[in-house]
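Figure-free illustration: sequence to structure, shown twice.
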Amino acid sequence: MPIRKAGNHARLQNVSTEQTVKSSAGVLRRIILSNGGATARTLTIKDNTTTLNVLNVPASSSAVFEFGVEFATSLKITPSHADVDALVIYG
């Protein structure tokens, strides 16, 4: 399953296409990457069609990114590779 939502978080796994994490306004709190993929990858974070940030993640690394960034329309995330395992926390 590419995306699982529960409460104020969503988990993206094995997906490399744009995923709508939340379809209304809110705040992106944190992204936790727990799978160090074999290649470097990016996560593109958008408020609907407006890019808010692009995270560059080195190969074989895990990371925690803190945000506190508001989005007005929807929160969308696009991983560059399918080996992503990301927990997205929002409000």
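We now fold a second protein in the same way, so the two outputs can be compared directly.
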Amino acid sequence: MDTSNLASTLVHRGAEADVSLTTIGPWKVVVKRRVRKAYRNPTLDEQIRHDRTISEASRLHEAKTAGVGVPSIVGVDVENNAIALTKLGSFFDPSANKLGSCTLGALFTGISQLQT
């Protein structure tokens, strides 16, 4: 899946990734794209972002199959280090940067803890 040409709206810029909203076919999706770190060696940076993207997708899949209420994976773009996920519920408010009573930062902290 190639996410590089998707028209999307940035909703959160974090230290590790940019999160944006877009539509792919019939789905409203969230795209999490890991960003380059200029201070890292380019080869090492690419490997870290690639490995973390694959690892996160694997952990999300494991959590989903275990019955945890996590987003479904629509696609993984390993070339651009991005994951496209189903949008969680209809109560997402990008202007408030909140998902219900949970901030996006807390949501992604929870997801990243699954990776360890």
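Summary for the second example: The chain has one domain: 9-114.
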